[in-house]
């Protein structure tokens, strides 16, 4: 496979390179792509060096698949040009996710929707991915009525500039700001831009993308998304109300059997998932599994995953693996 990584110099792009190498994706030629600014820069992949090219140059090299993680504007402009040239695009931005003509895919949840007609495939929002992987087996068994989620999101989700802001603030240095306020020793209840309804775009993504991926608009979702001064992964407190009652032991068993999920739930021994444990892992970690005692048929969970891995790079590479397995690239 000739593989282009668009945004190869960015945080998610470099994680995609790591994941491609780790999972032994059959890369015969790598095409690292970034902006004009990075043209000619060398990127290392599996011991070889590759020169960064621009999106237009990458199209001319005709890769089999292009993994995009270079922001919405780059995707809006270039993904259709790649697709037009017959190159299958897996896009990590929010540009195409809610487009009814594009599939929004988490392989463990709805991988079966992929078909030969799909030339631009959207990778969901990081917070949505880690939640739906956990919701899926529970919905299949007990039918979800409503989900209330609060997130505790890592600065890595904002990109290099945000990591630098946190580190600068921690070192007492002045520097570029990715957030409107100090993030160190603070919590910012604002991710992405505010909408007319008072929710942020990140919150609305969690709501709409969950319905689309799970193929069920009857699931009601409400979200509060929050940035915290943490690296390594996003955490989520998830409250789920079901149509049917559940057995806690069976919930643990279903989650334990779910592909891509690891249950860490042993309060007696202080075992629960944390971002520092999720960091560098492809799996979604789930713990604090307990009944909501204030309401019938309702469950509380704590869900943690590395937002750059399963929330972005790993899911994109898994989509490419699935395309390959189905003979679609
Ligand atoms: P560059 O390094 O040349 O700016 P992050 O979100 O971590 O900041 O990464 C953003 C990624 O998207 C980088 O690899 C960046 O490349 C890339 N990028 C930004 N604008 C463009 C563009 N117009 N064309 C191609 N890649 C772009």
UniProtKB/TrEMBL annotation:
Binding positions for NADP(+)? 9-12, 37-38, 307
Give the annotated active site.
126 (acyl-thioester intermediate), 234 (proton acceptor)
InterPro entries attached here?
Answer: Asp_semialdehyde_DH, Asp_semialdehyde_DH_beta, NAD(P)-bd_dom_sf, Semialdehyde_DH_NAD-bd, Semialdhyde_DH_dimer_dom
Q: At which positions is substrate bound?
A: 153, 227
Q: Which reaction does it catalyse?
A: L-aspartate 4-semialdehyde + phosphate + NADP(+) = 4-phospho-L-aspartate + NADPH + H(+)
Q: Which GO terms describe its biological process?
A: 'de novo' L-methionine biosynthetic process; diaminopimelate biosynthetic process; isoleucine biosynthetic process; lysine biosynthetic process via diaminopimelate; threonine biosynthetic process
Q: Which pathway, per its entry?
A: Amino-acid biosynthesis; L-threonine biosynthesis; L-threonine from L-aspartate: step 2/5; Amino-acid biosynthesis; L-methionine biosynthesis via de novo pathway; L-homoserine from L-aspartate: step 2/3; Amino-acid biosynthesis; L-lysine biosynthesis via DAP pathway; (S)-tetrahydrodipicolinate from L-aspartate: step 2/4
Q: What is this protein called?
A: Aspartate-semialdehyde dehydrogenase
EC number(s) per UniProt? 1.2.1.11
Q: Which domain of life is it from?
A: Bacteria
Keyword GTP-binding appears in the UniProt entry: no
SMART domains, per the entry: Semialdhyde_dh
